Amino acid sequence: MSAELTTLTLASVLQVFQFVVYATLANRELGPGFTMSPRDRPPSREMSTRTARLGRAYENHIEWLLLFAIAVGVTELSGQNSALTAICAWIYLAARILYVPAYALGWRPWRSVIWAVGFLATTMMLLAALV
Amino acid sequence: MTETTILALYGLLVLLTIMLQVLGSLQSLSMGYLLSSRDEPREVGRMTARMNRALDNSIVALALFAPAILLLVVLERTSATTLMVAQVFLLARIIYLPVYALGVPAIRTLAWLAGFAATAVLYLLAL
């Protein structure tokens, strides 16, 4: 398996992991009475700051995983794997792993810097496929 | 130009939209807030709110468009027709963004519809 496909698989596992952590904490804090309901009303108890941050980190990764998957898909389908795309893929994965503690612990401005690294790695991969 | 190229171009368009959305939100939110963990929500300006909605919509469109293209390529069902339909999708989504930002009502809906219909046609052609 190519580096691009390996990192895509690992990034998807990271997404599952982020979901499990967030869902577990949110269920404990909001109570299953709310989470199992149709959620018509806002929850009576509030989530902790850290759990809300993990939720935003999870939602942000949904967007990025989609863009990264497309970058990998385009690279693989057009057979344009190179050292550059492999390095971009690993950088993307590393950035998205670091993004989770960066958000949860409020590393400022490093969360934004890490986000920008993921942004650049994905953009480079897509541009490399076009050139 | 192939369908895969169109997909790469649309991916880049979404990345550009994200960049514009971040730069635009600097008008109503401070850099300090953007760099923070954003624990308390803040009001954004009208233009930023429009860019947020346009971006959300572009991401949904991307999630639906990408599998259609991957299916067509993997199943080897690409043709002159699928290429043209993919081009229509890209054009519609390019028009969608400035039209949303400027608040042109009917054309925005038409551009959205063209992108939606193009995606649906691609799935039908993949079957």
Automatic annotation (TrEMBL), chain A:
Identification of the protein by name: MAPEG family protein
GO cellular component: membrane
Natural source organism: Sulfitobacter aestuariivivens
PANTHER family referenced in this protein's UniProt entry, alphabetically: BLR7753 PROTEIN, INNER MEMBRANE PROTEIN
Protein's UniProt keywords contain Transmembrane: yes
One Pfam assignment: MAPEG
Keywords, sorted A to Z: Membrane, Transmembrane, Transmembrane helix
Chain segments annotated as transmembrane: 84-106, 112-130
Main location: membrane
Subcellular compartments: Membrane
Organism superkingdom: Bacteria
Automatic annotation (TrEMBL), chain B:
Top-level lineage group: Bacteria
One Pfam family per UniProt: MAPEG
Keyword set, alphabetical order: Membrane, Transmembrane, Transmembrane helix
Keyword Acetylation: no
Annotated localization: Membrane
Main location as per UniProt: membrane
Transmembrane regions: 6-35, 55-75, 81-102, 109-126
Annotated InterPro entries: MAPEG-like_dom_sf, Membr-assoc_MAPEG
Annotated Gene Ontology cellular component terms: membrane
Listed name of the protein: MAPEG family protein
